[in-house]
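Section 5.1 Outputs to date
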Amino acid sequence: MKNKQVESAKGKLGVLVIGVGGAVATTFISGTMIVRKGLGIPVGSITQMATLRLGKRKENRFPKVKDVVPLADLNDIVFGGWDIFEDNAYEAARHAEVLMPEDLDKVKDELQAIKPMKAVFDQNFVKRLVGTWVKSAPTKWDLKEAVRRDIQEFKAANGLDRVVCIWCGSTEVFTPISATHETLPALQKAMKENSPEIAPSMIYAYAAIEEGIPYINGAPNLTVDMPAIWDFAAQKQVPVCGKDFKTGQTMMKTVLSPMLKTRMLGLSGWFSTNILGNRDGEVLDDPGSFKTKEESKLSVIHNILQPELYPQLYGDVYHKVRINYYPPRKDNKEGWDNIDIFGWLGYPMQLKVDFLCRDSILAAPLCLDLVLFSDLAKRAGFSGIQSWLSFYFKSPMHDNEHIAEHDLFIQSVKLKNTLRKMIGEKTLDFMD
């Protein structure tokens, strides 16, 4: 370690998951436990499998990220969290039907020990679910205080040195940003007055930041993507990042769109449809929750292609996104894209993509990386929006003075250059 500003990763790291009984969360937790026992391979995880080029290419220095960046050890992670259902993590994982029973049984005892704390829940924000294991309090401010107590007690009971909080819960109904979310006093007042503009995810985020804990927003919810929370995170010196894990169809868009733009190929239309059968699919069957997801998915192409700069190529693109709840598929999502492009002299061509993916299998390694990198950011003294983690999100957070970067390859360079800088190595400009 050359950079003495990054604090040591020694000690236990608590990972508090909101939606700890969901498909993504149980796949993430189970998989991490299996990997640290040496019984599985962490495929998809940059922190565990990727290398980091250091110096000139001719130096041939390609160590693994985990060997040169001071990340928390997987054996030091302690899991906990909240859920709207009382099932322990093993029961919830069996219900989710993502991992096979023979894999879950490898860590059965550890999973059974994870019993969710009662969740903050408001059915106005997730209309297709009915929570049975939920907190009650006079105001949303009081609910926030209850979450803070949960964090404090979890940290004390497990002898933790540090904690990270990650949202793996459902997509909330679309909440447009308003004056309530612009300033910290307005947000606090709204929580005390039970404003309908305060979603459960905001209550968790506020509580985590107040406790000095990094917060990761894995859904397209507004949550921490507002000036009031940015100010609060800066005040408390807490890293925040989001939003919406970039897993299947949108990941493909952040790969294919740069290809079209780099080659100066035109785009006429992009039609995307998904079928998904897990709890996420059920929640997104509600128009309000789908609106939140749609906003997240639609921004990608426009941002990458920059139609204002290339009106002849991208000035009249028809972009449509559909998500259909289809129970037989369970967690095995299918994302189908029809892409109408044009080339030399405007002659039309087509791309067809049919991505039969496993939603939680793709999301689990992202959760692991984001937890470890957010903990690293906190120890490095970073605070506020962690734009270097945009690589992991469909709709990367940014303040009002910046533009989000959606290109997966540019995001990857930014991520790795940030890691290089943290360990005192030169960033790469690829000029050698």
